[in-house]
Design brief:
76% of the residues lie in helices and 0% in strands. Helix 1 runs parallel beside helix 7 and helix 3 packs antiparallel against helix 7. The chain has one domain. By secondary structure, it is mainly alpha-helical. The radius of gyration is 20 Å and the shape is rod-shaped.
């Protein structure tokens, strides 16, 4: 189901709900930023993006981060290849890239969750967000 269809169904159902039910429904359906950020930290940066509603982008971020971590570990001598001392020092260059993926994921999760929650608020209460 596309996101537009989901919000259309929510709007139709919210029109028939009393005000207290709308409040409870909004609190149950909104996405939590803390959970999204914890998933970013625990699942290679892409887990929070998947939770926020961007599955393809989250899978790509998990793949990129996995490749960067595998490269880092291989260059350090922890993988099947042992490049020696020459490339072990070069592996330090991958650390800022890995951190950049995590930082990008955190910013993207915050932005995506804020957009989703704002749109849900407008849909449920049929007025602009506070």
């Amino acid at each position: 189901m596309r996101e537009d269809e989901k919000f259309e169904i929510i709007w139709e159902n919210a029109q028939r709900m009393p005000e207290m039910e709308r409040i409870v429904f909004y609190e149950l359906e909104r996405k939590k930023l803390v959970l999204g950020l914890l998933l970013v930290i625990s699942l290679f940066g892409g887990g929070g993006v998947i939770y926020a509603g961007k599955a393809a982008k989250g899978a790509i971020l998990i793949l990129i981060n996995g490749i960067l971590l595998a490269g880092l570990l291989s260059l350090r001598g922890a993988g099947p290849l042992h490049p020696g001392e020459t490339l072990a020092g070069a592996s330090v260059l991958l650390i800022p890239l890995i951190l950049a993926v995590y930082c990008y994921s955190m910013v993207d999760v915050k932005r995506t969750i804020d957009e989703y929650n704002r749109r849900l608020y407008v849909t449920v209460f049929d007025r602009s967000p506070p």
